Each structure stands twice: as C-alpha cells, then as structure tokens.
Amino acid sequence: FIMERKTHVKINRKEVMLAKLRKSCSCTPQKLKNFVMDFFPVLRWLPKYRCKEYIWGDIMSGLVIGIILVPQAIAYSLLAGLKPIYSLYTSFFANIIYFLMGTSRHVSVGIFSLISLMVGQVVDRELLLAGFDLNDDAPPALGDGSLQNDSLSNKTAFNLTIAGINAECGKECYAIGIATALTFVAGVYQVLMGIFRLGFVSMYLSESVLDGFATGASLTILTAQVKYLIGIKIPRSQGHGMLVITWINIFRNIPQANLCDVITSAICIVVLVTAKELGDRYKHKLKFPLPTELVVIVVATLVSHYGKLNEVYASSVSGAIPTGFIPPEVPQFNLMLRVAVDALPLALVSFVFTVSLSEMFAKKYAYTIRANQEMFAVGFCNIIPSFFHSFATSAALAKTLVKTSTGCQTQVSGVISAMVVLLVLLFLAPLFYSLQKCVLACIIIVSLRGALRKFRDVPARYRVNKMDTLVWVITMSASALVSTEIGLLVGIVFSMLCIVVRTQRPRTALLGQIQDTGFYEDDFEYENLSTVPKVKIFRFEAPLYYANKNYFLKSLYRLTNLDPNLEAARRKKCEKKEKQHLQKGDHRTANGLGTGETTLQLVPKQIDFQTLVVDCSSISFLDTTGVNTLKEILKDYKNLNISVLLACCNPSVIDSLKRGGYFGRDFGSMQEMLFYSIHNAVLFAKDQK
C-alpha cells in the first residue's frame, strides 16, 4: 500500500525573512526593556535573589574561590609570559563582567591554564620577532611600582624592530600590548559569532578532540614549567616541536640545576599532591576544600624572604608586584592585525569550554542557559578587560567544581571572589615579592593532574570506540609535539575525516529472516537466521552519495556473488559465439551443446535469486549520484530478469528518487518498487514468482 503524503503549504522564505527583519528593526519601549534585560541577565535574577537562602553559600564559595584565584593568578602569569599583576586584573574583571552578563549560576570564569598557555605562545613569538630576549630570569625590577622598567637593550631592540609605537615601551609593555590586542580580537570574534548565531561551530569540537587538545596542551604546560622546578636557565623555545626542543635543553643543562629550587619543588609537590589526594578522598566530610595553594604560597614566601633564598642561593623569585590599577589604554590596532589569526582558535576554545561547562552544570542543577548569551558574556569578558591590561579568560572546570561543592547558588559568589582579588590588588600584592617561581610552577603542575590522568582512560576509551581513541591520540600528539593551535586544527580535520571515512566504507550486510517472524537481521552477526529462497536482502548502513557510490556497488556485487555488468558481458560473448557457429551451419554450440540447450547454458548456476531487496532504513539521504546509482542497478539487474525492490525509505529518500525519475514519469510503478517494510517486499517477491 502507498501512504498518502501530507500537502505542505509552501513557505515564502523571502517574506519570512523580511518579516523577521522588520520585527528586529522595530523599536518599542517594551522591546528595548526586554533587550536590555536579556543582555544583562542579572537584571532578571538579582531582584528575585533569596537572600536568607542563598547568601551564606555564595559568600563561602566566593571566599574560597577568591583564595584559590590569588595563587593561581600569580602562577598562571608564568604561562602567559606576563607579570603577575596582569593575571590579577584578569581575574577581577572577568568575575565582575560575567556576574552582569552570564546565564550560568555556577561556572567560575577567569584565568585558565590552557588559555594562558595559548596567550603566552603568541606573546613569546611576537617578542622574538620584535628582537627582545625571552630570558625571564633577569634581575627583578626595583619595587617602585613601575610596569615599564626594562633594560636599555630591550628598548633599543624594540625601537629598531617595530616602528610607530611609543619609543619608551619596553619588553613588558610590548608583551602586555600583544596580550591585550589578542584578547580584544578574540572577544570581537566571540561577539560576532553571537550576533550571527555561529555557536554551532562548537559542535565540530568533539569530546575526543577537546580531551586530546587539553591533554596535549597539559604536556606542553608541564614541559614549560620544568625549568622553574629545577632552577635552570634555558631559552624559551618557540614554534613547532617546542616540547622536544625544551626537553633536550633541560637534559643538557641539568648539571646547572639550583639545589635550593629542587628541594623547594620536591617539598611543595609532595605537600600539594598529598593535600589534593586527601581532599578528594574526604571531600564528602569537608565543608569546603583545603586552601592548600594559599598556605604553600604564604609559607614559601616567608621562608624565601627570611631565608634570603634569592640573594644567597640565586633562587628565581616573582619580583615586585605593584598595587592599584594602571590607567586604561586602548589596544594597539596595528598589533591586532599581527594576532588576528591567532585570536580565532583562542576565541573558539574559550567559548567551547565556557558553554560546555555552563550546559553541564545547568543540566545538573535543573535550569537552562542561553548559549548565545554565553557567547556574548565571554566575548565581553575579553573585550572590556583588554582595555585594563588583562588577557583572555574562560570558564575553568576545577574552580567550578569547588564553587558548587562549597554551596554556590548564584554569580554573587563571583563578586565576592572579585573582592578578594581586589583586596590583594590594592594592599597585599607587594608581599609576594620573594615568592619563588618554582613554587608557582609546582602549583601549575599539580593543577594538571586531571588532564594528565586522561592517559589512564585510554584503554577504556579504546574498548568503547577505537575511532574516537585514534582522534584523541592524534589531537594530543599534534598539540604536544607541533603546537596547540595546529593540534586543535589537526584534531578537528581528522575527526571530520573519520566521519567521512565511516560513511565511505560503512557496514554492509545480507539479511536473513528471524524464524517465524517478519523481522530480518544481519546473517553474518546472528545465528539461526533463515534465508529467503530466491531473494537477497542487502543493507547499506550510510547515506548513499558520490563518495561511497563505488563501495556500495562493490559490496553489493560481492555479497550477492553477482556483478550484473560482467554477467551481461559474458552472456553477450556467448550469444556472439553462438551466432558465429550457427552462421557456419554447425548445430553444436561453442560449449559443445545443442542449440536447444543454449538458453539453459546462458543462465549461470551462481544466480540463485530472482529478487534483490535493498534495505534503505540506514540511508538518511541521497544525492544525485546516489539516485543514479540506484537507477543503474535497477537497469542492470532488470537485464538479468532480476527485480530490485526498495524497503524502509524515509520521506527524504523517496522525494529524491521521485525527482530523479527512479519510478518513471507518472510514478505508476511506484507501489511495485517501494515498500514500507522488508517483510512486505519479501511477500511481494514471493507472490511475483
């Protein structure tokens, strides 16, 4: 039977688009109010804030996150190649802006190790191109609060290399200039993606790609911190193969290791790892996480200051961290042009991590977020702070987990965290002058535990899906051995190629009938299936399009043990020889048979079916090549007196077949060629016999 299709009213897309445009361009007081409240979600939820119910959880989580943010901000400045003060600025502004514009109640937005690494790689590259020395182990600047005290050689190199910028701007000034320009462009990209609703781009970053990218970048971060752990001075490697080159330099310079830094690093790592493990084991009994990083930093700073580790043992220290805020400054446009390409992967990674975390916690706590607004929020968390000497931000999983575990209810906790950072910015920052860089490196390395533990999941991942494991390995290897940006690109391209390969060479099967039922399954995979006499049922588990046309035909011919083209050619050859013998008056054929037996000989013994049923249930669409392929097999098998029936086609496939003329001009034979189940097709084939 043929089901009657509904008649759909044809939509005039031009009129619909014009109506939407008129609606978008119209401005009424109510619409303006809704726009402002949608753009600043805080205006919707803050008036409904349940103070008695939420305030203590928000204050507690805000204080804990603020205490964690301070040491992490100082530590991650090493990754970004910038001074610690800029990391503190970043943490402060990101929390305030996300409080105003974010739709997630729980995510913690601020500095993130992966984003800091990506910023640092661009900063290092541009400093090298500008002629600066990347050695950051030079004697610290005097504690006069100046953020532009650089060596004369750095100023000279800068002026000779880069023209058109303030001649007094030295290495540090140029580094933060690059970082703010990069951050501004990344934020603009994110806002534009929000305006044009391009959030779907994040769908191409699969879980395997993101995990592999994060793990590969973690190896790069770990490698970059080893020199601080053991106190050696090696050049900061740039470009492809940075990981390998850095390790070669580390092993070459191990004899120069600073014993004081090695001992300090060993003690800090033992304390941090032990505290983390205990915290994970007893997290259900603890009301809030142990502020281990802050304790380690305070103790290490006191020991370094009173033990004079910098003066006596030449241990590298953080140096002067000024207090207060620097006057805002517009990012340099000519620097934006230099980093425009680098900002694209930065914007994409920042957005994807933020939205994925927001969706994860929204689902966990039963509320909804707006992905497009999240894109605006994280975009402005980059654009606005870039005027205040800050660099790129993103949501961070570790801090978000701490937030939720300490009672966070809303983004009011973010304001509390920002106040803690502000307190450090205004009063406490100079106290970290004597903090050893090896302590900061220890904090960074221990924070990578989660990403590095992904290596333990590889066997389980492999058992679940081999292709996804391969994507993870390729992305991780490229991110670690080549560069983070190239690794991300390689991961995206390779994962898409895997999808293409899966559709190019999908599973194919001949189906057998489940006994005493009207259902059919793969004869290769299941036992006790019965074959249908004189009927072959072929399943193709992918769309049929130009890239897999040949595989479709080869699989069909192989499984049915019949190539209709070869069989037709063989028959023509036999007929030709038969005619030649008849013309010569020989009543014996080329095969030694009489003329009456010729027809029997022409039908090969291997053709054991008269009907081919194609199960189209897994064919989601057909392109022009796919339609032509089905028309081709219909014609070829018809020449051998074999019927071709299609079963389980979806409406899209049926429409493609109609437009391609598969059923003829008037669709008169459609009900004899198309069936809504395999069993109906099989019953029809039996009746035709």
UniProtKB/TrEMBL annotation:
Its main location: membrane. It catalyses: bromide(in) + chloride(out) = bromide(out) + chloride(in); oxalate(out) + 2 chloride(in) = oxalate(in) + 2 chloride(out); oxalate(in) + sulfate(out) = oxalate(out) + sulfate(in); iodide(in) + chloride(out) = iodide(out) + chloride(in). Residues 525-685 form the STAS domain. Signal peptide: none annotated. The chain crosses the membrane at residues 54-76, 96-119, 173-192, 212-230, 335-355, 376-398, 418-448, 469-497. GO terms for cellular component: apical plasma membrane. Keywords: Cell membrane, Glycoprotein, Membrane, Phosphoprotein, Transmembrane, Transmembrane helix, Transport. Pfam families: STAS, Sulfate_transp. One of its GO terms (molecular function) is secondary active sulfate transmembrane transporter activity. It is a multi-pass membrane protein. It is found in: Apical cell membrane. InterPro entries: S04_transporter_CS, SLC26A/SulP_dom, SLC26A/SulP_fam, STAS_dom, STAS_dom_sf. Belongs to the SLC26A/SulP transporter (TC 2.A.53) family. This is Sulfate transporter. The lineage of its organism: Eukaryota, Metazoa, Chordata, Craniata, Vertebrata. The gene is Slc26a1.
